[in-house]
Amino acid sequence: MARSLSVVGGGVIGLSVAWRAARQGWSVRLYDAASGSGASWVAGGMLAPLSEGWPGEEAVLGLGAASLERWPDFGKELETGADVSLFTSTSSLTVALDGADADDLRKIADWVGAQGYDMDIVDRTKIRELEPVLGPKVRLGLLARSELAVDNRLLLDALRQNARAAGVEFTDENVRDLDDLTTDQVVLAAGLGAPRLWPGLPLRPVKGEILRLGTRPGVTPAPTRTIRGTVHGRPAYLVPRANGIVLGATQYETDEDTQVTVGGVRDLIADAEALMPAIGEYELKEAAAGLRPMTPDNLPLIGRLSDRVVVAAGHGRNGILLTPVTADAVVALLDGNTLVEAECANSERFRNVVRKR
Ligand code: GLY
User: Measured between alpha carbons, how far is 144 from 141 in angstroms, rounded to an integer?
Assistant: First the structure.
């Protein structure tokens, strides 16, 4: 008889776990009152573990790189039968607008290179050649040739379709207590909702605002890669889409709402303009805010909480990036195995604060 599994949470993590588990023969029911409406819906979709690397964060880099490596096959499997690609760019370019940023880029390149991953420092002339639409202040760049970008909304659709085709049953029933679920196993993938169902899980919301821009006839073409930079000390990124650009993202530690503020939109547009002066020609299609489920050490929580419950939550800024490695790690845990690459994210590291059952 098929082993039964409840997945609580229908963002990219819950959906991918449900899909992969169903394919392994589990009988899966996914619980979410509004699947795909949280952080997964708002996300930019850049997969940039190397560009976001920083000395001292070896585990974050290793986990992100392990997931990036899985993305091409993971995406291809999801795209089967679809007429559009999930991928909207195949590399990323982080640019420096001043000397301090240029020093940081060299530091990242050296450190990431020492960890065994390839990135290239590129000068102003090369940047002009690669991305002629970037602004005159751009003085140095860091090119990551393997960093893809994914359309998060197409991804949600593809995951839902594939999960359904694999036999996953969807329900919008609200789960109030994991003990109400009668399946053999439970995966808790409810993002910021997870501590309500399992007290003590160390998650906090970090709000982010993001803009979606559309092309218009005659506008300056969008960059062909994901462009990242720091402007006035704030991180800014432009992620290509089939018909425009996603522009992100603000970061607030204190706000727990999903309202879009005037100041946030002002900063996003001003910072993007420093990277790409022609951004003002685009249509402003959407402004949205989401809450990133962050942990104290920027690694997610992927591990066994009890004989029956596995957690997969707390993916912070990297939910889309970490989707494939998390799905593999959770399916391994359900089968009584562990995925070595995801051991650094084992929720056991917070055993002193997470409630036992
Ligand atoms: N994934 C990028 C961000 O959270 O802003």
Answer: 10
